What we know:
By secondary structure, chain A is of the alpha+beta class. Chain A has nine helices and four strands; from the N terminus they run ααβαβαβαβαααα.
Amino acid sequence: MSVITYIIPRTFSNMRGNWLSHLMTALTIAFVVLIFGLSTLIYFNLHRLAENYSREIRIVTYIDPAFFPEDIENLKAKVLKLHGVANIRHVTSQEGYQRLVQQFQDEKDILTGLGEDFLPPTLEIEVTGTMHNLERIRPLVSELTSLPGITDVYYGKEWVERLRQAADFTRLITFAIGGLLLLTTIFVVSNTIKLTIYLRRNELETMRLVGATNFFIRGPFVLEGILQGLMGSGLAMLALFALFEFLKTQVNFPGFIRFFSPIFLPISVVTGIIAGSIILCAVVSAFSMRQFLRV
Amino acid sequence: MDSPLIELKHVYKSYEQDLTILEDINLRIGKGEFVFVNGPSGAGKTTLLKVMLCLERSTKGEVWVDGINLKRLSNSKIPYLRRRMGMVFQDFKLIENLTVFENVALSMEVCGIKKSAIEQRVDQVLKSLGLEIKKRIYPRRLSGGEQQRVAVARAVVNDPLVLLADEPTGNLDAGRAADIMSLFSEISARGTTVIFATHNQELIRSTAKRVIILDQGRIVN
Ligand SMILES: Nc1ncnc2c1ncn2[C@@H]1O[C@H](COP(=O)(O)OP(=O)(O)OP(=O)(O)O)[C@@H](O)[C@H]1O
Ligand SMILES: [Mg+2]
């Protein structure tokens, strides 16, 4: 009842009376939430990329070129028995050379002077689904390395690990920015509220004198905080989306992730960020009021 | 008077340790009674009223209002006590950025009363105090006497159980003061207890009401 007839109109009149500081507050919240959102977005996509990569983990083992075909068949049988191996493909030196020729179609010259058998033969090993994880793949790799005839094992570990590290790092940054967001919001929102309270101290005092409850006095300020959180974070999410769409058209991804298309934060995360901002602002407003609610 | 509406038992009030503002106040005021509180400036009249409204808590002693021991009243219950008491403040305490109408309506709004009921009642009270044409005006554009009448309007608009009036006629000419007096008498006749603090001896002599005389924080009569 009093929420509609009193608290809402009062909130708007409070905000009108002090609109510049409210605008600054909303913009500050928007800015911090934007940075937080950006960092979350980067983490989110790096994480996806790392996941994609580990899903495609393939082990390539180089075979001693002096091995005879029947030795290779032997080796294949041994490898197939290892835990986690799904499939094996033997790639001969010649096949390897043909692949290169196809890859360098226009720049075939690069390959002139290299014999068709300059590449060692390899075994390409597909791992089973449960092995799409660096920790699980390491034991398999060391088993492979110890097999006679295998000279080298390559499994793109550097990339996957670097991606993982980058993802972990951005997650750390995201947490740090989240903390910063918390502090900034607390500081800015409570200052705005305190300014409003200061401007309206006589009014607030008088309201207490005529029997207003704390809920009634606090209501407009909490609603004000909610609106600021909503405006600030909503604005930030719109800006982040625009920035994302813009960057997508501008940035040329390096070859190895050419086929990865970054996606925007899922709606659940966006709603979470907005809801979190609203709750934070409301709580901060309610708390900044506390000292004025003594009797 | 068997069960008084307001009762003070050995009430002391001091802000600093050694400075006593109210000293051993004992009072019993009945329902619908009209009482003057008289005494020189600084005697403690305002403080006495503030203690009754729970704006100040007594340092020692008991204050009872309508069967409630104010010492036991929790902060969250105070608003409900104040809604049943109206106070005309010596310095009016009007809200600058609200109109005359809105200032008076505030007392009813905080109680959650319907808008239509508020409008009707506020108009009625403003009219009885000769303020209906000033309804849309902001307090700073009113004369001192007009502001005082707005403060009176706000205090009586809820038909309070107790009306605490702190120098409500201080800025008024004799005619207006008499108007306020008769308004208060009428209210008190309808059952509201009126406590009227003033140092205006003439006003007190013109009526035959009970008078409590304070001097340096003590009741001296
Ligand atoms: N908040 C306060 N802190 C300290 N002392 C106070 C406070 N309020 C009032 N006093 C002191 O209490 C005494 C009584 O003040 P009070 O306002 O009750 O007097 P009064 O009888 O209403 O005077 P007047 O007729 O001038 O309004 C004064 O000496 C005043 O200085
Ligand atoms: Mg006084």
